[in-house]
Design brief:
Blueprint lengths: L1 H6 L1 H15 L3 E3 L2 E4 L4 E3 L3 E3 L3 E4 L4 E3 L3 E3 L4 E3 L1 E2 L15 E2 L2 E3 L4 E2 L4 E2 L4 E2 L4 E2 L4 E2 L7 E4 L4 E5 L2 H9 L4 H7 L3
Parallel strand pairs: 1-4, 2-5, 3-6, 4-7, 5-8, 6-11, 7-12, 8-13, 11-14, 12-15, 13-16, 15-17
Antiparallel strand pairs: 9-10, 17-18
């Protein structure tokens, strides 16, 4: 019984959180499952909600002040379905980095697929599937994710100039 407890996913997730928090002290991370954790790079403050499941063999780059709600999925590779080795797929996986720029909010149960860049200030609505790049300041939703509207850029830029960055403010005092 003790051997099972030491090898179960809770212990691995605890080790992942400890590794990430030691390497990136400005992030808050809950119970997560991240494969290829050494290929994830945080550039500043971030919050990763519970139940995140990220497969990072193609690499994940995360900007400053990025918030992930619970149960987000990021996938950075895909099987080669055009392979001449086997069907339905074969050969080495096709790996593509996911880039998430500053001040992005990713809603609960979103899925982000390989090779996607999410632009600064974007908001991804709950349950969205992001299959293509998302422009700066866009608010997107759906499957596949499409632009619903754009943020008020003047207000966004004013808050940015005044350094009203949510996770940085939260680290100094509770909002």
């Amino acid at each position: 019984m003790l051997k099972w407890i030491l090898n179960n996913s809770f212990v691995n997730e605890f080790k992942q959180r400890r590794f990430l928090q030691k390497k990136f002290p400005k992030i808050r991370i809950s119970k997560v499952n991240i494969s290829f954790i050494d290929l994830v790079n945080f550039k500043g403050y971030a919050h990763v909600g519970a139940g995140a499941f990220w497969y990072a063999d193609g690499g994940i780059e995360i900007g400053n002040n990025v918030i992930f709600a619970p149960e987000t999925v990021i996938w950075t590779s895909n099987h080669n379905y055009e392979s001449d080795i086997a069907i339905p797929y074969g050969g080495p996986d096709i790996k593509k980095k996911v880039i998430i720029e500053d001040n992005v909010w990713v809603g609960i149960r979103c899925i982000i697929l390989p090779g996607v860049t999410i632009g600064e200030g974007a908001i991804i609505a709950a349950g969205s599937v992001v299959t293509k790049n998302i422009e700066k300041y866009s608010i997107v939703g759906g499957n596949p994710a499409r632009i619903i509207k754009r943020r008020d850029i003047e207000n966004y830029e004013m808050l940015k100039r005044e350094n009203k960055i949510y996770l940085e403010m939260k680290s100094n005092y509770e909002l």
